[in-house]
Amino acid sequence: MINGKSLEKQLAELLDTFYAKRKGTLKNLQLIPTLKRKNPYLYRATGVATGSEIIKQVMAAFISSSDETIFGNEFFEPLAKWAAIESAKARDNTTVTVGGAAGVDIAVEDAVCYIALAVKSGTKVFNTQSRSHQETEFQALRSRLSKIKKQFRSVVGYGYGRKAKRISAARNYEEVAGQDFWELVTGEADFYLRIMKCMEEKPKEHAAEFKAELAKTENRLVKEFLFHFSNDDGSIAWEKLTKFNSGAEQMKLQKIPVKDE
Question: Could you give the number of structural domains in the chain?
């Protein structure tokens, strides 16, 4: 079993990185490129009446998507790598290689088996193209390792969620999620629960600082939105917003005046 204090320390470090990345993405969030991808008709149809409402929706969608990506890259993936290395220390004749082949994040090898593991966040990350690419990378590794004469398991593992325990004959790889994934990595059936428990109070340490950054970003974007897309009476200039978003010719927006230092 992985030592509890070591796990707490690792989780604390990963959460520090996660929150640093979250704040960084907020600071870099730009209104104009984001609005180009939004549906102004939907905002009007759902009764949005203020610039702050639009910005709140823009930010909520951005944070939801961004957090999922950041958490997968900066928490789940490095945690899985660390946990695989730590758990291998208690297993006889077991070695762990991190990032040793294209499309493979963790390779676990013992006397009889070679497990090539691609780590993903949730179970909905694949589209047709990325799934096909993953299959190709697994097959290439399988071919290169054919001489070692060991059982070869190619596995896509998801940090949370559920997947039926089966091997796809068409894809020739396994998919495991949630409890099954973390047990495969560590050998511990309850490791997925230990992760949650060992976070302890760490997220609360970051809450106030992140909330402050959130408020600054919201104020910045609302100010910019109102400058470009509000009427003199403070109402949303819907036609201007729609022309900017959907007009055949790209609308040039006036630069926001910069106050003298």
Answer: 2
| CATH number of the domain within which 64 lies | 1.10.3250.10
Tell me which of 125-134, 204-213, 233-242 is least confident.
Answer: 125-134
Tokens of 35: 């609005």
142 backbone dihedrals φ, ψ, rounded to 5°: -60, -40
The yes-or-no verdict on residue 261 having pLDDT over 60 is no
Looking at residues 12-26, what average pLDDT do you find?
A: 96
Residues 112 and 47 occupy one common structural domain: no
Cα distance between residue 5 and residue 87, in whole Å? 14
- Domain containing 78 equals 1-90+199-261
What amino acid occupies position 87?
Answer: S
Which residue matches tokens 């730590």? Answer: 86
Are residues 168 and 238 located together in one domain of the fold? no
Three-state SS sequence of 64-109: HHHHHHHHHHHHHHHHHHHHHHHHHCCCCCCEEEEEEECCEEEEEE
Based on the domain organization, do 191 and 214 belong to the same domain? no
Of 179, 198, 217, the one marking the end of a domain is: 198
Q: Please tell me whether residues 99 and 46 are part of one structural domain.
A: no
Mean pLDDT of all residues belonging to the chain: 92
Q: What angle do CA 43, 47, 49 make, to 5 degrees?
A: 85
User: Burial, 146: exposed, middle or buried (Cβ in 10 Å; 0-12, 13-18, 19+)?
Assistant: exposed
Q: How many CA atoms lie within 13 A of 240 on its CB side?
A: 13
* Residue burial 70-92, b: 16+ Cβ < 10 Å; e: rest: bbbebbbbbbbbbbbbbbbeeee
